[in-house]
Design brief:
Number of strands: 9
Shape: globular
Largest sheet: 9 strands, mixed
Order of helices and strands: HHHHHEEEEHEEEHEEH
Oligomer: single chain
Strand content: 15-25%
Radius of gyration: 19 Å
Structural class: alpha+beta
Helix content: 25-40%
Distance between the termini: 26 Å
Number of helices: 8
């Protein structure tokens, strides 16, 4: 009898965990960006299907412990990501052009969740966010890396958004006011944008891995239903 009761309790818990995230009913904090209505197109991810068939996992990150870190000297080899792939392959999957102009409302909208996917054999989490520096807002594709100490924008993005290359700038990312820096020009990730540990920690930006290469990042404090689950 206790075993049956335990199974019933487990199923009930799973239902509570799934229902808020899978619900298609409109909710104030779960509304998507108005200029990005389409879900991630995982049919365009040939690398994911290849990796899924082989069952292999290849990570080119250098995950060695870094001590006495200076953010301007932070570096990590990310050989499979560059500006061209952000503009082509990754934009195709995310369904939004890299550095496309976004709607004005999206620059101020505090979304509760952002859909992304795991790119390539290294399963790199990629998400699209609206970034604004007081002028026009633009779509920027980010690599989410909690191992990075701060958030970086590529030189190209800094030029488009008129962000100073030699200083810390406060911009909005997905409606969050946050400090950003230009990716170090001599680093191995100079052409890509990185959402670092500072952003993930400050805004409780938490991944929900949904299987088959899909990942949704949730702002816990913005999503009322998810927040209640974590408070239990």
């Amino acid at each position: 009898m206790s075993k049956i009761a335990g199974q019933q309790s487990f199923r009930a818990l799973c239902s509570r965990l799934r229902r808020p995230l899978l619900s298609h009913r409109p909710h104030r904090t779960l509304r998507p960006f108005s200029s990005y209505p389409n879900p991630v197109n995982l049919f365009a991810v040939g690398s994911w299907e290849k990796a899924a068939r082989s069952g292999e996992y290849v990570d080119v990150h250098d995950l060695n412990e870094i001590t006495d870190l200076e953010v301007n000297n932070y570096d990590v080899p990310i050989a499979d990501l560059n500006d061209q792939k952000l503009r082509t392959e990754i934009s195709k999957v995310l369904g939004i052009d890299y550095l496309a102009e976004a709607a004005e409302d999206d620059a101020r909208r505090e979304v509760g969740a952002i859909d992304g996917y795991l790119y390539g054999d290294a399963r790199r989490p990629m998400v699209p966010c609206v970034v604004c520096n007081g002028g026009k807002p633009y779509w920027v594709h980010f690599f989410v890396r909690a191992g990075a100490p701060v958030t970086y924008l590529s030189k190209r993005v800094c030029e488009v958004l008129d962000i100073r290359k030699d200083a810390i700038t406060t911009a909005t990312i997905a409606g969050c006011y946050h400090q950003v820096r230009m990716s170090p020009p001599t680093s191995h990730f100079a052409e890509i944008n990185v959402l670092g540990a500072d952003f993930c920690d400050n805004f409780k930006f938490t991944p929900w891995f949904r299987g088959k290469g899909r990942v949704t990042y949730i702002f816990e404090d913005r999503c009322d239903k998810v927040k209640k689950l974590f408070e239990r």
